[in-house]
Amino acid sequence: MTTTPTRRTAHAAKEAPMQAPKRSAQRTIHGSPWIAAAFAAPLMIYLIAFYAYPLIRSIDLSVHDYNIRAFVQGDAEFVGLANYIDVVQSNLFPQALWNTFLFVGVSIVFQYAIGLALAVFFRHNFRLSSLLRALFLVPWLLPLIVSASTWAWMMNSDSGIINSFLGAVGLDPVNWITSPDTALLSVIIANIWLGIPFNLVILYSGLQNIPDEVYEAAALDGAGAWKTFWRITFPLLRPVSAITILLGLVYTLKVVDIVWIMTKGGPANSSLTLAVWSYREAFGTGQPAFSPASAIGNLLIVIALVFGLFYIRLQRREEH
Amino acid sequence: MRNTSTKAAVAFATAALAAGTLAGCSSDSSDPGSSGGSSDGGGAAAGGTYTWWDPYPQHEDGSDWANRVQACGDEAGVTIERTPYDTTALTNQLLLSAQEGTSPDVVLLDNPAVSTLADTGAIVSMDELGFDTSEIDENLLAAGVVDGVAYGIPIGANTLALYYNAEILEAAGVDPASVTDWDSLNAALEAIDGAGSRAITFAGIGTEEGSFQFLPWFWGAGADLTELNSPEAVEAVQLWVDWLDKGWAPQSAIQNSQNTAWEEFLDGQTGFVENGTWQVNSAAEASFETGYITLPAKDGGAAPAPTGGEFVMAPAQSDSARYEVTSQIVECMTTPEGFVETAETFAYYIPPTAAGQEQFIEAHPELEVWVDAVRAAKGRTSDNLGTDYPLISEQLWTGVQAAMSGAQSAQEAMDTAQEAAAAATGE
């Protein structure tokens, strides 16, 4: 919950000059509404240029029929919701939606569970624990092109290390990223690996905020490790868990890069998620179709927004 | 900063500065004179800077290619500012710059994208620039022709062939000269497989590269891009599917890009690889002896492979006075001597005119096979497909991938592909 401290400092900074000795010359400067506007202007311009405009432009793209000619000449025909209807009625839509659901759902469950397990494991400091913890951050630090390509190589059907290993223990090789049955699973595995550090870091810092006295009291009452976890750690970690899962959800919904690098959404659309579909429509073929792409993108924003609202509701209920 | 009045003054100054900077930015970008190609022109004849975009980021400043581009500028008495992009990025950049009115003066673009871009009206035709394109080989120029008007000139051409590992073929008792049709190719692959080596690899990736690699087999079977589910087309798909099913080709071929397929081949454990003329230098440097043959059609003879290579084009400018120098730059790239020079700079480009080809063969008699292959090649957007090609191609590679991965049978996959392609192009 990083917002609270920042807001506080901002507030403090605003108050500071007010407490200063008041001289009339200064007052005119301080009281001027122009100053307020000048301070707010960079932020407002930033918000408009980098948030409002792209959003409006994306909606604008999705309700017009922007083929390439119209994109260049700027005379796209207004088609209302036709792009959305086309997307939803496309026979790719149910598949992409289901893949997105699996990709996000399975990724989050495993990222969170493994991240939490590691966070609890690292709660007690031991020798080299900080070094080990740092090593777990590696997936986060590597450029995605590197980690995704490495996963693709490891999962290579013929010369990948995973199949070599399976062969060594007497199992049949699996066509990880070239079979429609396992392509989605493969990208999910890679994505889980990528998401663990994020969950670990946030949950670990959440654990630091649980006072030791609670654990001491539990120990005195004779609670074992299992009971301590379910009765103390897990409930006290709930607010942090909620924000971790929400952020993970939003991040995972819009993942394009790892899927694109590993499978391009294929073979036969078996690993196509909504985000990858949107990217492919816009940039993946020789014929950019910006309008359907932005329609899919906007649907994704709506989905993310629904989860955001759900989170806010949950938080309100917690506060009451 | 202990003094509050200083603090306030500094704060005010900072805010004002920030606002000023932002205002400065916005006024800059709205100034029509300050952007891109149409900028510091005016005196077109009397020097100036001309912008040039190409898809060769591997050729850095100071490379032979960069120097060659600059020499064309020097000849026209101007400075050329060259910016290389990755192929896909280049198409996107061109679209954006065309929308903003900041197109470069000269651009080199991969041939299947030419008709798409010409359709936007953002490209000046070669007629308008005063070029006669009748000397250019028709099959190579076709990709740049929309409704009978040429929008670009190929600066060279490349195409696909079958490279082989001579040592593996010898060990398996296969004579590369015996491979003349699909049956003899399959027999050769079986022999290599029997001798314990991987028989063949190729790029079946789900992008334009996948279609590019599949087309020689598709066309070689006698199939047509307007009917993806014809018996001939299905037969071509089945050829690839069988290679995978029999273990002659690796599973990874489904996700291989052309570079990855080439890397596999360089590993020295694969008999054949389908790859482009641009690998000819790399093949010569391989740790084993290599050779190449043309891709066989189903019933013998050379299969029409798709032409590859870039077109030189002139995007439309608001200041038409710039075209005069632009023409001189294009001219410098497209004379017979210019073609040969380009071919030598790249070491794999075949000149697109008969005159250029003759000069080229004289200097490099060993590359005559490539010249023949280029003459037999076929443009992907030809057959009057134009801007429909990318839509069809997307369905083609999707269908081929679906069949190879076993998601659908070859017939089902191509039926689906044809249905989707018809829906996409019917609009």
Describe this structure in words.
The complex is a heterodimer of chains A (320) and B (427). With 320 residues, chain A is mainly alpha-helical. Chain A has a single domain (92-319), classed as MetI-like fold (Orthogonal Bundle), CATH 1.10.3720. In chain A, 75% of the residues lie in helices and 1% in strands. Chain A has 17 helices and 2 strands. Chain A has a two-stranded antiparallel ribbon. The radius of gyration of chain A is 25 Å and the shape is globular. Chain B is α/β, with parallel strands linked by helices and 427 residues long. Chain B folds into 2 domains: 49-157 and 308-376, D-Maltodextrin-Binding Protein, domain 2, CATH 3.40.190; 160-305 and 387-425, 3-Layer(aba) Sandwich (D-Maltodextrin-Binding Protein, domain 2), CATH 3.40.190. Chain B is built from 18 helices and 12 strands. Chain B has helices at residues 4-30, 64-76, 87-100, 114-119, 126-129, 138-141, 166-171, 182-194, 208-220, 231-245, 258-266, 280-284, 323-334, 336-346, 354-363, 368-376, 388-404, 410-425; strands at 49-54, 79-84, 106-110, 123-124, 145-146, 149-150, 153-154, 160-165, 198-201, 270-276, 290-293, 310-315. In chain B, the strands form 3 sheets. In chain B, strands 1, 2, 3, 4, 7 and 12 form a 6-stranded mixed sheet that branches. A 4-stranded mixed sheet of chain B has the order 9-10-8-11. In chain B, strand 1, helix 2 (64-76) and strand 2 form a beta-alpha-beta unit. In chain B, helix 9 crosses helix 10 and helix 14 (336-346) packs across helix 15 (354-363). The longest helix of chain B is centred in the first third of the chain and has 27 residues, at 4-30. Chain B is globular and about 65 Å long. Residues 1-46 of chain B have low confidence and may be disordered. Chains A and B meet through helix 2, helix 3 and helix 4 of A and helix 1, helix 3, helix 4 and helix 17 of B. Chain A: It holds the Pfam family BPD_transp_1. Chain A: One of its GO terms (cellular component) is plasma membrane. Chain A: InterPro entries: MetI-like, MetI-like_sf. Chain A: Keywords: Cell membrane, Membrane, Sugar transport, Transmembrane, Transmembrane helix, Transport. Chain A: It is found in: Cell membrane. Chain B: Pfam families: SBP_bac_8 (PF13416).
